[in-house]
Each structure stands twice: as structure tokens, then as C-alpha cells.
């Protein structure tokens, strides 16, 4: 099975229109277009009944102490943790593409609605739900896709891994509100194949990709 994209070139920089945040000379970070990227796929194995799409940033700082601090830098050698940006489930076996901007077209304060999604698919919450939990103006359940917004002072360019899983079940056996971790646990015995595309993104003008 092969995952393809007209929006992201594997191993190269992600355009700011697919990000939650973009560089800003005055404030360091400004809200961006937050479009979900285009994806298509081919070669799904026999017996595929549905697909799941996940976006993971494995480079989120494990400690928040230095994050977005004017006089500090998040060191490149700091231990890193996962930050999940999207989980889309119940993609029918007949579907072979997701269009750019089909599931997200802008930043939605307090989060987009869910779990229902276009074309009878479902989306879980992403990790901005936890990130904004103590922010009065932004807290809420962030369903669906919300793109990159790494710390503006991070010495490391973050990787954003988009992975498509082909499953032998039509529906992920979860109800109501669910996270990417929930999905990965229940689909593990049902994965027939997977493929990934990884893009890079930074908000630190000192870091080149």
C-alpha cells in the first residue's frame, strides 16, 4: 500500500497553510490557515474494509519549562514526546483520497465539533485539547485536524508523520469521544498494512529545514 500527497513531500518542509501557527516577526506565532493536507492511496491489501489516518508529532518537548519563552531555547537534545494532531476513522474501503481542506479550513477556537465528520467518517480529539485545557479563551474538545504549531524557540525542527492504516474491520469499535491512543490500541490486531509520509515544520527562524 502506498500513501501519496499533493500537499506534502516526504522529508521536506510543510507549507504554513497546513499549520495551526505560522511565523510572525512581532509576536513569534500567528494563527495560520490550518488546512488539512491532501492524501490519496493505492494498493490496499485484499480484505481491507476501512482505513484510519493518524498525524503524530514525535518531537513535542517532554517538559514545558522552556516552551515559547523569550529568553530561553528548547534544546534539541531534550527528551521528546508524542503530540497527536489528527485521527480520522471509519474511512470506507471504497475511498482512495481526502481532499485538501475537506476536514479543516481554519483555526477554530475551543475546537471543531465531532466526532462526526464528512462522508460518514468520524474523528477523535487531538492533543490541543490537553494543551489548551487551562486557557480560558481556547479550551475545549479539539476534534479532527489541527496542524503544526511547535514552540517558536525550539532548536529542533519537528517531524509530522501522517500514517494510513488499512484495517480488516469496517468500523473502529469506539463510541463517543476518543483519542488517537484509544484508536491505536483497538485497531492494532486489525491492521493489514500501513504507510507514512513525514513532513517537517518549525517556527524558529534560526532553524533551517
Automatic annotation (TrEMBL):
The entry lists its GO molecular-function terms as: protein kinase inhibitor activity
Name under which the protein is recorded: YbhB/YbcL family Raf kinase inhibitor-like protein
SUPFAM superfamilies for this protein? PEBP-like
Q: Domain of life, per the record?
A: Bacteria
What's in the keyword line of the UniProt record?
Protein kinase inhibitor
InterPro entries on file: PEBP (IPR008914), PEBP-like_sf (IPR036610), YbhB_YbcL/LppC-like (IPR005247)
The keyword Protein biosynthesis belongs to this UniProt entry's keyword annotation: no
Tell me any Pfam family this protein matches. Answer: PBP
